[in-house]
Amino acid sequence: MIRKLVKSLIPRKMFRAIEPYGHLAESVLWQVVEGFPARGLKVIGVTGTDGKTTTSTMIYTMMNEAGLKTGLMTTIGYGLPGDWHDNMVHMTTMPTRVMLRRIKKLKAAGAEWLVLETTSHALAQHRVWGIKYSVAVMTNVTHEHLDYHGTFERYTAAKVRLFKLVGGWRGGLRTGIVNADDAAADVFAAQVPKAIRYGVRAGDLRATNVKLAADGSDFEVELGGHKTHLRVNLPGEFNVSNALATAAVGLTVGLNAKQIQHGLASLDGVAGRLITVNEGQNFAVIVDFAHTPGSYEKILPQIKALTKGRLIVMFGSAGRRDETKRAAQGRLAGKFADVVVVTEEDDRDVDGVAIMRQIAAGAEESGKKRDRDLFLIHDRSNAIRHSVGLAEAGDTVLLLGKGHETTIERADGEHPWNEVSEARAALKELKTK
User: Fold this and answer.
1) Which pLDDT does position 204 carry in this prediction?
2) Residues 75-104, buried b or exposed e (16+ Cβ, 10 A)?
3) Is the pLDDT reported for residue 183 higher than 60?
4) Are strands 396-400 and 284-288 parallel, antiparallel or unpaired?
């Protein structure tokens, strides 16, 4: 309430300059009030543009399978095995007081470790002040959230803060897990006393003999001086990268090769990530949360390579978020997909048709043409039905941007939403035609 009043009384540039200090004061206050609940927990922070939730979930699964009582807080929810709570809002790292109270519950339930998905917003706004991270994981850094950070350099610097938090305090493991395939790897690695670099193409922990398939991937990596076969039940080379990050964490916390191998193989899927919807149709339908140009560069060519027929992709771009990524999303979809269907994705109070036109402009640059292989359908339910209606035997329909989320935000507020249920309903209707 106070922040809103101050924001209304002073120029925007001045408010943006002093806003972080207000967040810092708020975080200090709530840490004192809640009694610094993360004290005594060993915290593993995961940051990056894409792959944070999947990597966090892999680490959480691996550690619990190894007998380390580990809590998890991510975009999709928080909890311990057998006591899970879905996240009902569109925010990864919660407001400070909410986050601290959840940490307190996890600690009271016996958690000794915590895997905390940590966003650039949370770091820039000091929401995680007072939390002593033992390990930091960087998945990648690509184009996202420039509406808030202003420049790519500031966005990167915000994420680097996580590694500074790990390297800046005495005690703990003080280790950074860095994606060697990312251009920013050296910047992150320089912030910690010890860095483990992983990658599909480079790194201390490097995948070899990679075999990609629609139901997951198999590869080899050297763990503890020995070649070890690893299996991840999630498709795509990007999930091999996520699995390598997880393996690096496993080594850091003292797990052996067999524990890492078993932990990765134990995870069957992550909510909203590459979920297959099957109602007996002769084409594939996949739901995924991917919503950034970086994630499109990974997921689109890899799903295309696994598709016998055409790749039909449906997506939108959120209102009141980074506008500059919309044309890039369109260009990438136009480049890799055979058919592009543009729709709504949390327009909020922004003109949804205008957003679609921005995306479409990018797709047209890649050669797509309206009403031939580029369709603009604002209502997301109708767009899903149109997408599956276009599909033929051997095609893949890829529905991007909503994934696990349970609401869709429009000008009049939040509405219930379930992408998988919508896709399933559309497929059932198709069977009756």
Assistant:
1) 93
2) bbbbbbeeeeeebeeeebbbbbbebbebbe
3) yes
4) parallel
Output the average pLDDT for the chain. Answer: 89
Question: What is the three-state SS of 266-280?
Answer: CCCCECCECEECCCC
Q: Which CATH class is domain 275-432?
A: alpha beta
Provide the residue ranges of all domains of the chain, joining segments of one domain with +: 2-265, 275-432
HSE (side-chain half, CA atoms, 13 Å) at 373: 17
- In this prediction, residue 20 carries a pLDDT of 57
What is the token pair recorded at 365?
Answer: 């640059």
Q: What is the DSSP letter of 227?
A: E
Topology of the domain covering 2-265:
UDP-N-acetylmuramoyl-L-alanine:D-glutamate ligase (3.40.1190)
CB atoms within 10 A of CB 233: 15
The model's pTM? 0.79
Distance CA 210, CA 237 (A): 8
Concatenating the DSSP letter of every residue in 309-364 gives S-EEEEE---TTS-TTHHHHHHHHHHHH-SEEEE--S--TTS-HHHHHHHHHHHHH
Q: Given CA atoms 207, 212, 216, 219 in this order, what sign does their dihedral have?
A: negative
Q: Which helix (H) or strand (E) holds 376?
A: strand 374-376
What single string gives the DSSP state of each residue in 186-216? Answer: HHHHTTSSEEEEEESSSSSEE-EEEEEETTE
Contact (CB, 8 A) for 292 and 50: yes
Amino acid at 123: L
Q: What are the backbone angles phi and psi of residue 288, rounded to the nearest 5°?
A: -145, 155
Q: Provide the percentage of residues in the chain whose pLDDT is more than 70.
A: 91
DSSP-assigned beta bridge partners for residue 44: 115, 135
Give me the mean pLDDT over the 128-133 stretch. Answer: 92
Q: Which of 296, 277, 393 has the alpha carbon at shortest distance from 336?
A: 296
- pLDDT tens digit string along 391-416? 999 999 999 999 888 899 999 999 99
pLDDT at 378 over 90: yes
